[in-house]
């Protein structure tokens, strides 16, 4: 039996309604929202230093800071969690293989940042300890924020000339499994292995000497 004229019109109207519903029905976008691209909380890959902190921009600050040279390779084979990691020397911009420079001698590595208030009190203490212990222990700082210009400015203010490297991406922190706090002092044996990770500020050279003697066996 053939459908009536009214039935055919009803069917056609139903098809049109269904088509409209499909056209306006909300659906997921093919391209996900990338979210914010600037400001705190972004997922951008970390960098060791800001692009604007180039050699020309940092030259006056480096001259004023007059930091001690970063450790040069000793000839001993670099070992431990820092082996193969190369950083920029804050003092002169040269490339530094930190493990190679520290190999064969106990080391005190201090992680800090220009905005860290306890670091401001601790860095002069570490310099005092470094002068006391001499060549028996290497004392090196690691700046863990990408703003290298501010790091140099702070070292000038603190009158601290310890050698240091720039590590805005936190590679040292990750390699030694240090907690996400500052300051952190890492005690490294002569063979490159980590003896202790100390997430605490030191308030005197005597305190530093005590932990170094306990964990590295060096008396100062």
> Class, according to the CATH hierarchy?
Alpha Beta
* CATH architecture descriptor name: 3-Layer(aba) Sandwich
**Approximately how much beta-strand content do the residues carry?**
5-15%
Poorly predicted runs are: 11-44
Shape descriptor reads globular
- Sheet with the most strands, sense and barrel status: 7 strands, mixed
- Helical amount: 25-40%
Question: Helix tally?
Answer: 7
- Lateral arrangement of strands in the main beta sheet: 2-1-5-4-3-6-7
- Helix and strand composition category: alpha/beta
Sequence of secondary-structure elements: HHEEHEHEHEHEEH
For the record, give the distance between the C-alpha atoms at the N and C termini, rounded to a whole number. 109 Å
Radius of gyration: 29 Å
Instruction: Provide the CATH superfamily.
Output: Glutaredoxin
Number of domains: 1
CATH topology-level fold name? Glutaredoxin
| Count of distinct strands | 7
Keywords: Cytochrome c-type biogenesis, Disulfide bond, Redox-active center, Signal-anchor, Transmembrane
Main location: other
Subcellular location: Cell envelope
Pfam family, one: Redoxin
């Amino acid at each position: 039996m053939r459908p009536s004229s009214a039935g055919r019109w009803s069917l056609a109207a139903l098809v049109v309604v269904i088509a409209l519903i499909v056209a306006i029905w909300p659906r997921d976008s093919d391209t996900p929202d990338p979210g914010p691209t600037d400001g705190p909380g972004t997922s951008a890959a970390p960098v060791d230093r800001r692009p604007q902190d180039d050699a020309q921009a940092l030259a006056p600050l480096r001259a004023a800071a007059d930091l001690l040279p970063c450790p040069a390779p000793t000839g001993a084979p670099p070992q431990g969690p820092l082996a193969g990691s190369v950083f920029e020397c804050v003092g002169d911009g040269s490339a530094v293989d930190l493990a190679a420079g520290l190999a064969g001698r106990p080391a005190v590595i201090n992680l800090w940042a220009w905005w860290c208030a306890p670091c401001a009190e601790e860095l002069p203490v570490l310099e005092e300890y470094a002068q006391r212990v001499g060549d028996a222990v290497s004392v090196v700082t690691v700046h863990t924020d990408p703003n290298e210009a501010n790091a140099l400015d702070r070292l000038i203010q603190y009158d601290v000339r310890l050698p240091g490297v720039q590590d805005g991406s936190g590679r040292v922190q990750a390699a030694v499994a240090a907690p996400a706090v500052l300051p952190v002092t890492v005690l490294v044996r002569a063979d490159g292995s980590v003896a202790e990770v100390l997430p605490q500020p030191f308030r005197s050279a005597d305190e530093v000497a005590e932990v170094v003697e306990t964990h590295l066996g060096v008396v100062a």
